[in-house]
Design brief:
alpha/beta, Spore Coat Polysaccharide Biosynthesis Protein SpsA, Chain A, two-stranded antiparallel ribbon, about 30% helix, globular
């Protein structure tokens, strides 16, 4: 299920959305769970499509749901839907494979961060466009972090001033992301980790409190409230 890139931007956004979402409890795949009556994936794609830089959106869906996901999203925005894999890394690779070479910037975005604002997509894309190989949005860590051993005894307190919580979308020069996936020997939880293994720098930009990752049932309740909060960096309507 393929949509042609538009002429308006230079960015492809890859959305791995084939995960089961076990921590959310039994039910549909995580990306298809409902938030305020609509699947998380619909919320995510609506915000991605509103970003002026985005020319193409590729969603890696559960293999059994490719047609249904394409039908669901076609009413929201032009999308390409491919069959995802058992692991996130496989889904990103499958989606990346259909991004044409003329799109030189690729953002990878988790459907679980479905309220990430347009301003965040634009900030990440602009930083790659300015010359960075890889860009991640981050937030300062506000909790005290303890290192513990196998029997849950505290070994020490970590200096949180040098720690950051990482969000998506993560942005890359397309050749860098392709090289990172080609070289990846082990599973990684984010694509920036694969770029780090290439020995390339990963640049940080400010993240957004709206880009909450929906992982547990309580996150759905928080996201319902966040739906009422406008993007503080968006231009006036």
């Amino acid at each position: 299920m393929t949509a042609q890139p538009s002429a308006r931007g230079d960015v492809a956004v890859v959305v791995p959305a084939a995960g089961a979402g076990v921590r959310l409890g039994p039910g549909a795949p995580k990306a298809l769970r409902l938030l305020d009556g609509e699947p998380l994936l619909v919320h995510a794609v609506r915000r991605i499509a509103a970003s002026p830089s985005v020319a193409m959106i590729v969603v890696a869906a559960p293999p059994a749901d490719v047609d249904a996901v394409h039908t669901l999203l076609s009413a929201v925005a032009p999308v390409t839907v491919v069959a995802g894999g058992a692991e996130r890394q496989e889904s990103v690779a499958a989606a990346l494979a259909v991004v044409p070479p003329e799109l030189g910037i690729v953002l990878v975005h988790d459907a679980a961060r479905c309220l990430a604002p347009v301003s965040l997509f634009e900030r990440v894309a602009a930083t790659v466009r300015s010359g960075a190989d890889a860009v991640i949005p981050v937030l300062p860590v506000v909790d005290t972090i303890k290192e513990v051993d196998a029997d849950e005894t505290v070994r020490g307190t970590v200096d949180r001033s040098v720690l950051r919580a990482v969000q998506t979308p993560q942005g890359f020069r397309a050749p860098v992301l392709r090289a990172a996936h080609a070289a990846a020997a082990d599973a990684h939880t984010d694509d920036a980790g694969a770029v780090e293994k290439l020995g390339l720098p990963v640049h940080c930009v400010p993240g957004s409190d709206l880009a909450l990752k929906i992982t547990r049932p309580i996150d759905l309740a928080l996201a319902t409230h966040l739906l009422t909060i406008p993007d503080p960096a968006a231009p006036p309507a």
